[in-house]
Amino acid sequence: MEALKERIRREGRVLPGNIIKVDGFLNHRVDTAFMEELADEFARYFDVSKITMVLTAEASGIALATICANKYGVPMVFAKKAKSDNIEGGLYQSEIFSYTYKKKATLIVAQEWLGPEDKVLIIDDFMAKGYAMQGLIDIVNAAGAELVGIGVAVEKGFQHGGDSFREQGYNIHSLAVIEEATPDHITFREDDPV
Amino acid sequence: MEALKERIRREGRVLPGNIIKVDGFLNHRVDTAFMEELADEFARYFDVSKITMVLTAEASGIALATICANKYGVPMVFAKKAKSDNIEGGLYQSEIFSYTYKKKATLIVAQEWLGPEDKVLIIDDFMAKGYAMQGLIDIVNAAGAELVGIGVAVEKGFQHGGDSFREQGYNIHSLAVIEEATPDHITFREDDPV
């Protein structure tokens, strides 16, 4: 998606450790109008008329997933990290390793809000190694729900999480896949054909 | 807001420890169309034409804050909990105690995204003792920004966080204030006049 790539080129910053910061519009300060454009773009790749929900993981996926769900007319469910006293029993769980926080976490979704009748579009703001994404996929599978597709705003292609999912046959589309990032230059992969 | 109270009466569940679960539409599975109605209701109490941003705290406030910000035409910023490697230097910080998770956490907002020129509407899904809210207020004050108002969807009135802010003179409005909650019955406070 050229508008997203242009925005990353203009506002993104590359930090040591292959960290690409786009927190001015995507995952700290959120430009919600721009998120609507991303939601429209996802709708070119996925048949959003057949989904029953959008699933994401807390915290930074929630804003984009909310705009998408609102636009597609379905509820948004976010997997929570770790266990709070507010979620009792009846949970789907998946252990993940957070690349961002360098520690393990458990993603949980209440069984009440995801079941075999659901057709799920997973939406996330960022994907690197794909650990959190694998956790979301595991949860969809545990529920016996149908995974319609996986939409990611920014994928770090050089960390190969996305390509691993592609090789496994998942219907995954990232709006901007970063092949290489240095402080001076960011190289993007060509967009998937619609 | 009668529609919200009705929804809490119909779908809310009261658990031991004064926990009120509304995770079917507000903070796990999110009914984004209903969030639009909440956003419209907040706009009756606050002059949203003068705000420059909506501020909330991760994670469960993000969905509602996103819908509000999108409707009001301003960016949404969410305070992050704890420190990740992705946020370097230049931070506003506030230590809070999470009633939900029974532990301390630090709310952080990058100074880049909040400054003295900002007019801030804080939006959160839930308020009990108000610890997280105090953290957000501290951050707005640390930035020298103007706090236009505080909008909360569901306030647990019997835990007095909201009343403490009212006594301090904050422009705070909660769409549903729960005065008493038992497994059989929930009593609400009367709505604030517009």
Automatic annotation (TrEMBL), chains A, B:
Highest taxon above the source species: Bacteria
Single biological process term from Gene Ontology: XMP salvage
Entry's EC annotation: 2.4.2.22
List of residues binding xanthine: 27, 156
Biochemical pathway: Purine metabolism; XMP biosynthesis via salvage pathway; XMP from xanthine: step 1/1
UniProt-annotated binding residues for 5-phospho-alpha-D-ribose 1-diphosphate: 128-132
Phosphoribosyltransferase domain ranges (all copies): 45-157
A GO term for molecular function: xanthine phosphoribosyltransferase activity
Gene3D superfamilies, per the entry: 3.40.50.2020
Enzyme class, broadest EC rank: transferase
Reactions catalysed, as given in the entry: XMP + diphosphate = xanthine + 5-phospho-alpha-D-ribose 1-diphosphate
Chief localization: cytoplasm
InterPro entries on file: PRTase-like, PRTase_dom, Pur/Pyrimidine_PRTase, Xanthine_PRibTrfase
Keyword list, A-Z: Cytoplasm, Glycosyltransferase, Purine salvage, Transferase
Pfam families: Pribosyltran
Compartments, record wording: Cytoplasm
GO CC entries: cytoplasm
Function of the molecule: Converts the preformed base xanthine, a product of nucleic acid breakdown, to xanthosine 5'-monophosphate (XMP), so it can be reused for RNA or DNA synthesis.
Family annotation (PANTHER family): HYPOXANTHINE/GUANINE PHOSPHORIBOSYLTRANSFERASE, XANTHINE PHOSPHORIBOSYLTRANSFERASE
HAMAP family according to UniProt: XPRTase
Record-linked NCBIfam families: PRK09219.1 (NF006671), XPRTase (TIGR01744)
Subunit structure: Homodimer.
Protein family per UniProt: Belongs to the purine/pyrimidine phosphoribosyltransferase family. Xpt subfamily.
Name of protein: Xanthine phosphoribosyltransferase
The organism of origin for this protein: Vescimonas coprocola
